[in-house]
Amino acid sequence: MATKTREKFATQVNSDILSAIREIAQSEGRQLQVLVDEALAGLIEKRRQGKPRAKVMASYQASHDRFADLYKKLAE
Fold first, then answer.
1. Residue 24 lies in a domain
2. What does the pLDDT look like over 32-66, one tens digit per residue?
3. Residue 2: its pLDDT value, please?
4. Whole-number Å distance between alpha carbons of 67 and 61
5. Three-state DSSP class for 30?
6. 1 falls in which pLDDT band (50, 70, 90)?
7. How far, in Å, CA of 31 to CA of 24, rounded?
8. First to last CA, the chain
9. Is residue 7 part of a domain?
10. What is the pTM of this model?
11. Distance CA 34, CA 6 (A)
């Protein structure tokens, strides 16, 4: 398997999140960069699938529950 090119970058992360991910890396015997790659790849895949965020869906559902009759009338 060919080695993929790696690129360094700098960012800031919430200290609680960083602490938790370091604990996971240590408990699993994995490198932090592997977990970061995994998390970013998961985020990319999630976005590509086009799944709406939970907050957006909750707002949509609340609107639908409140205005269902109006939406039906508008559709007619």
1. yes
2. 999 999 999 988 888 888 777 788 889 989 998 99
3. 63
4. 10
5. coil
6. low
7. 10
8. 58
9. no
10. 0.58
11. 11
